[in-house]
Amino acid sequence: MPPPDLALIRLDSPTEHPCAYLAERVSKRFDGGKVIWAGWTEVDGELELVVSARGHDLGMVGSQIRLGDDVLTEGMSGGPVVDPRRGQVIGVIKSRTVGGSGGTAVGTEALRTLPGPPGLLRDEAHDTYQAVCHAHDRYHRDRHHHPGPEDSWTDVQTRLEKSAGRVLGPAQRAELLGLLAELPPPVSTAGLLDLIGRAEGRRGGRGPQPVPAPRSWRDGLGELRETHGGPADLELVLRYCMSAVAAERPYTTQDTPRAEYELWQWVRELARDRLTRSFRGELRQLWAESRERTDREQRRTEPVYGERPRPGERAGVLLELEPRGWERDTYDWRVGVAHFNGEVDAIGDGTGTALRDLTAALAGPLTEAFRQSDEPDEPAVLQVALAQAELGLDVERWSLVPGGPPLGVQRPVVVRCLDPEAPDGETDEQARWDHLHTVGMRTEDVDCQDGDWVPVEVEERLRSLSHETVPLLCHYAQRPEAEAAEGFARLTRTGYRVLLLRRSPGTGPEALCADLHRRAARVVTEARTASQLPGKIHELRKGVWDKRTEAYWSDRVALFYDDPRHPLPGPGLLLNAP
Fold this sequence. Notes:
Strand order of the largest sheet: 2-1-5-6-7-4-3
Shape: globular
Structural class: alpha+beta
Radius of gyration: 27 Å
């Protein structure tokens, strides 16, 4: 299988051996360090445990860990790769070099890509990843509380010289992770990333995130832990803990209030020993405010404490597809998470990918970008940026999983233009955009008369149309390229940034222009403002997928939605993945 691939096996009975300690941080953060590994191999017909006792250089090869120059024998796949400086497992052996030494391993963070259930979690067991993380951290906390004749992982970590100087010692970290494991998990990865950003004092763009991005409370703590151990670092960790106490919940149990209180008690005691009276007062205020919040279990109410992005601040996903003019049906591509402030965090990129291979190449980066942006009850919008000559490319009909629902059924999909005509000096595109998003809108058929194609009118006429106008290009994909391009260019030059494009008329009664005009006008009126249009088109695409005849008219209709406040980042700015 292509990396990263990591199987999680469910055991049907308990085991006698102790549980290994899994790192909270992604293995890419250990690039260039030393690791040791172990695995089973066959020697003279018997299984023998082989341990690489000396440290070996570690690096990264794509998404895999590159192991050093020791021999990996057949049968060692599946053995642990350990960071000896911190005493934790960071990966699992995957392969050995044929005819040479060393090999590769998969970082344990690949478990974050395990699919979760749709919608809000019902309980801990509903999401395998969260259930495993919680059980892991409870185990190590319990083991530390009840020492036996054998050393625990926490005991070994405490003796490691490199453990000194960090903001939390191994025993404190085991205690904190166990306390966090008693809380319901974060509602979503997107919410967790925003919470981390707010704890660090950032709003809007989150900055480059590790891939895969954090998904559980322990993952989030791992993003904060590599610090210098000073008071400011400890304050950050404790603010994160208080955010976990006050966070929205996908569900609660009868033990949730007690778990929140125990975490608060731990925070208070640690702050009392190491931090100022002023900061301790801030923590007490956060605890008092968290007790007054009654909306944490009501996902559709707006939280008063600001952990969910405000209206208009949701992150989306940007896919840029740039054709290679000298290679037919071949594209350079970039995937990123686009924030409301215009920043774009790179997820992945590729060059020279054939059209037939695009969905396979994009599946991993898009899935990660969606995970960083989606809420359980609100999938993020996918913005597809295409060259004007490529606006007929129906990306919303692509499926990332063979036989699965198309992208346009899973989420709102809109198109943007990589090379639009710049507005002329007499155009106020921002005024049109603002009007459509605050006052109202209506459609205008700009290239169709009685079912026949007509040229889009000249700029002077287009500028005279009211600011509530949403042009409908009924014959966009039927005309020769030059005619379609010129009509579209007139619209962008005169400030139109919200348009409906019919890429192909299809066949049957639903292809009649009059029916398209009538139904499109109704949908635009019902949406009221342009911000609701991506969701409306999404609902129609789900209707087509569900074979609802009243939605068939919308098949092959695309929404051009190009926010002038947030221009596309341009070539090169998304090329460097983190």
